Structure formats: C-alpha cells, structure tokens
C-alpha cells in the first residue's frame, strides 16, 4: 500500500491558513478541541514544544513533514529543526539552510516528483504542513485533508490553496467533529 499525503492545517472559516501578514495567532490553540485533535494527530507539534508540554511525539500517523520555506521560516531563528522527530523536507529555490538545521532536508526539486518518490517508499503517512503555494503545486497528490476550521474570518491572507487555476477535485468527508471552542475538525479523503 502506498503512503498517503495528508494536508493537515488550521484554516479560518473563510479559507485562509494565515492572515494578510502571515499571522496565525488568532487560531485557537487551547480549548476542548486541543487534546482530542492533538491525540489523533500526535507528533504534529514542534518537538521542543511537545516535549516542554509533555505531549507524546511518537506513535502518530506521520513520519515525514513537508513545508514550503515561509511555513518553515515561522520558527526561525529559534526552531531551525522544528520537527526533529520526523523526516523534514523544506521546498525552497532561494534560501540556504540556516545554522542548526542539520536534520532538515532543503530541496529545490519539483515537489510533485518528491511526493511521488516519498509515496513509493515504506513508512507512515506524509504530512503537508503548509503553505498554500506548496499545497497548490502538489494538490493532485493530496490524498486526505484534515482541516482544523477555526471560528474566525481573516478577510485576506494566505489561502488554503494559492491560485484558482486548477481543475476541480472531489473529496468525501470521513469525519466532521465540532467542538465547544468553535473549532471543527473536518476530514476528507480523495474520491
């Protein structure tokens, strides 16, 4: 069985994964949704933050995380190796590896080719962490969506998928879980 690529990300109800200036601090990180979603998607918190909070990092659904440069750079300079418990691949054509990022793979290769190679390898799932530009490039390779829909409107910002020049794709819901916090975990699989 081939590995699956899951786009697991927080998103506003108007479809943005970050605000106009790349901010994401309006997303709800605490509430009744946090423990439940954290358990289901164990290992998706940065290693040092998970360890500091006592969250387990092993046993989750993913062993590989993919990021565009802007998503990766959110943690710099403090977290140059954010998910050291996972294989980390950052797609960039313009940036060099920062100091302390020894366990991170930086590549300027075609993301679609890389994803197809990863899918053919043995292992757990592949997590597309962000962002919207990378998601647009690999959209036809995404097998699952796991969207933490937050009860906020950004009005503008970084969309879930950048651009709108792609063919429609059908996904079937596999779970819709609303929480008192207002967050809704919406999970889908490609039809």
TrEMBL record:
InterPro entries according to UniProt: DHFR-like_dom_sf, RibDG_C, Riboflavin_Biosynth_HTPR
Any Pfam family: RibD_C
Top-level taxon in the UniProt lineage: Bacteria
Domain (Bacterial bifunctional deaminase-reductase C-terminal) ranges: 5-185
SUPFAM superfamilies in alphabetical order: Dihydrofolate reductase-like (SSF53597)
Full protein name: Dihydrofolate reductase
UniProt lineage: Bacteria, Bacillati, Actinomycetota, Actinomycetes, Micrococcales
């Amino acid at each position: 069985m081939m590995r699956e690529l899951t786009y697991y990300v927080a998103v506003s109800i108007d479809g943005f994964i970050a605000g106009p200036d790349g901010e994401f601090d309006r997303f709800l990180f605490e509430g009744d949704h946090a423990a439940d979603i954290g358990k289901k998607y164990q290992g998706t918190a940065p290693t040092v933050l998970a360890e500091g909070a006592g969250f387990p990092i092993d046993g989750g659904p993913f062993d590989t995380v993919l990021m565009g440069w802007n998503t990766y750079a959110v943690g710099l300079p403090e977290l140059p190796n954010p998910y050291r418990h996972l294989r980390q691949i950052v797609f960039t054509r313009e940036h060099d590896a920062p100091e302390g990022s020894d366990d991170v793979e930086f590549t300027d290769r075609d993301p679609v080719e890389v994803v197809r190679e990863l899918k053919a390898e043995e292992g757990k799932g592949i997590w597309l962490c962000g962002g919207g530009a990378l998601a647009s490039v690999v959209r036809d390779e995404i097998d699952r969506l796991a969207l933490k829909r937050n009860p906020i409107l950004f009005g503008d910002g970084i969309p879930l998928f950048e651009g709108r020049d792609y063919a429609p794709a059908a996904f079937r819901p596999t779970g819709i879980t609303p929480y008192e916090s207002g967050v809704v975990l919406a999970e889908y699989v490609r039809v």
